Structure formats: C-alpha cells, structure tokens
Amino acid sequence: MQLLTIQNWCLSENGLSALRRAAVLLLLVGCSYQLARLSWQLLPASQTTAPASVSTNIPATPGDQQESQQRLAAIREAALFGIDVQPQDRGTTAAPKSRLNAQLTGIMASNIASRSIAIIARNGQQQSYAIGDVIQGTDARITEIFPDRIIITRQQQDEALFLDENAATAPPAAAPAPGNITGLRQQIMKNPAQLQDYLSITPVMENNQLQGYRLNPGRNPEIFGQSGLQANDLAISINGLDLRDKGDAVQAMQQLAHQAEMNITVLRNGAEQDIYINLAQP
C-alpha cells in the first residue's frame, strides 16, 4: 500500500502549552505501550515466532490450547484498558516482598478474579499466568492479582511480587512535572488506567487474522485530536515493528521504555500515515 503522507509532528514550546504537551506525550506513549502489550496477548503462538531474546511457551496439547483460547477471550472481554480495577484484598496487603528469581513484567487486572492475567519473566522466558497457576520451574502458586502486584504462595507463605521492583520499599512517587518527559513515560507505563479519558483501543479481526487496532477518542477528545490521531485510525506498527506480528509486538513493548523517538503508523482512509514524535525534546 502506497505511503501517501508522513506527518512529522514535533511538539514544541511554540505549539502546545507545557501542560497540554505533557498530556499528548502521555497519550502517545501510553497508546504505544498498550498496543504492543495487547498485540502480544491476542495473537496465537502459531502465527509468528518470538525473537530469540524473548520466548513464550504455549503448551501444544488440545486441552491446553482450548484453555489458552478461553483465557484470550477473557482478556478481550475484561475491559482491561481504561478501568481502574480494585480486586478484593483478602488480607495479603502486608505480604513480604518475594525473593523469587522472576520479574513481573505486566499485569492485566480484571474485577473478575478468574480473568486477571500476570505476565512473568524467568530465565529469559515470558509467560502469562492466571490465579491458581504455578510459575514454571518454581513451587510458587499465584493466589491474587492486583493492578500493581501479585501474591504468590511458597511453602505455605504469602509473598508479593511487584510490578515495580522498588515498590515494596519506596514511598509513593509524586506526580511528574509537565515538562518531565521521562517521568511521564514511567507514570503511564505503571498505570495504564490513566488512558481512559483519552483513548479507546479495539482489536480488529478479519478471518481470524489481526488487522490492527482501532483508535478512538475517550472522554477528552481534544487531547486525542492534538496527538495527530484521528477517530477510527487503525494502528498497524510502532517504530517499524508490526503490531500484527507477535515477535514484533514483543520487541516494541521492550523498546518503548528507552526510545527517544516514536513513530506510530496508522491506516487512515485506506492510506498509511506516520505520526512522529521526538520524546527527547526538552
């Protein structure tokens, strides 16, 4: 498909106010992070092969495949983005920080506990787990999933595995100043629920194939429009990485935390359009 337009949209002091510029950056970074994360979860393992640096283990037995499909369906139905989910805490708030050799890299929390998903990396492999699952290669069973942490049980003891490894000891972080781009990026990646006012993301499927992600404004359409996006844009790639490909989607998610520049490619009225932003601008 012919690329008709490349929109170099660099935010500057002469354009938006500092506060509005911060909101737009928050929107774009959050949009990219969520697209990459959602792509990774929705695509079946048979479609693509993940890069060597990240391996996802999907069981091959028919029963497990059926369970995997049910889990993916639950993810689609759980309204994961834009809802601040607060699951019931059964008294494990004070569970000590776990020393398990594993990293909690993502959480998809639902108000229906059985639909919550935790993404855990261990020994170079990342897998998704539900409540009741045992983390591969360990004796740790997941008993609760919260927006910022999970509770695991090891040797009959509750332990907490945090999304942010410093969350167990660090005081709550103050909201970053409008001009603090690094702070904004970290904030939105820790709390994707902030996107609910700005953005709606819907996967588009055709013949069981992912075509991209439909983007629409949230309750604050002004910010959405200023980002360079338009209603019904279909996002297909970030920084040249195809969101419809599992391996590329994983790479996109890994790279977003360190990118100085971002380019979101969307299909608009049948033509590709690039929306560019320089995250390193002061």
Automatic annotation (TrEMBL):
Name one cellular component (GO) term.
type II protein secretion system complex
Q: Extract one GO BP annotation from the record.
A: protein secretion by the type II secretion system
**Chief site of localization:** membrane
Q: Which InterPro entries match?
A: PDZ_sf (IPR036034), T2SS_GspC_N (IPR024961), T2SS_protein-GspC (IPR001639)
List, for all copies, the residue spans of the domain called Type II secretion system protein GspC N-terminal: 25-163
Keywords of this entry: Cell inner membrane, Cell membrane, Membrane, Protein transport, Transmembrane, Transmembrane helix, Transport
Keyword Lipid biosynthesis attached: no
The organism's place on the tree of life at top rank? Bacteria
List the Gene3D superfamilies: 2.30.30.830, 2.30.42.10
Report the subcellular localization.
Cell inner membrane
Q: Which Pfam families does this UniProt record tie to the protein? A: T2SSC (PF11356)
Can you tell me which family this protein belongs to?
Answer: Belongs to the GSP C family.
The protein here is known as General secretion pathway protein C
Record the organism.
Answer: Tolumonas auensis (strain DSM 9187 / NBRC 110442 / TA 4)
Question: What taxonomic ancestry is recorded?
Answer: Bacteria, Pseudomonadati, Pseudomonadota, Gammaproteobacteria, Aeromonadales
